[in-house]
Amino acid sequence: xxxxxxxxxxxxxxxxxxxxxxxxxxxxxxxxxxxxxxxxxxxxxxxxxxxxxxxxxxxxxxxxxxxxxxxxxxxxxxxxxxxxxxxxxxxxxxxxxxxxxxxxxxxxxxxxxxxxxxxxxxxxxxxxxxxxxxxxxxxxxxxxxxxxxxxxxxxxxxxxxxxxxxxxxxxxxxxxxxxxxxxxxxxxxxxxxxxxxxxxxxxxxxxxxxxxxxxxxxxxxxxxxxxxxxx
Length: 231
Known about the structure:
This protein is of the alpha/beta class. It has helices spanning about 20-35, 50-65, 110-125, 145-150, 155-170, 185-195, 220-230; strands spanning about 1-5, 40-45, 70-75, 80, 105, 130, 170-175, 200-205.
């Protein structure tokens, strides 16, 4: 399966487009998950009024090449492929990446990658955190200590313990469970954050679910919609 996009990649062009960006991500994921099937993304700068040049030239050239690549980029009919290069680790260590008045928002910040990012940014100087943890309401911050002593171990308790640990380090933590698809609710949340903490200066989008069937081909339409809803 092949997807052809127009100027999606920034390579050798001044202004890339977002045409086909969502499907490009899907093709890359499927190609990595299902090795027995070939999924290819190809980006071209060929104008749409030159179909013969695109299909008879660049696409044909792509199929004629012998390397088993899954991503190509054509600029002025020249083929390019991505490659990884080793870079030297910067010598400068311990530099603070954030200022104390920064307000960092992390979706999915109560567990997994989001939880680790929250710990990381706090270690780098962040003192104001907005944590979005799905749609699960949690008790008021004043009741976190009591909840940890009275409630049995659960994912909910793990989330509270994580938030309280951040708060105990002197971090101002704002927890919210507004759905990411609720535009009106998100606007109200942002306005409230601006009033209480200041303008949001950084966002880490870590929200996501895998559903009962991790395999893409085994997911139902409803499960796919639930996964995509977070993004």
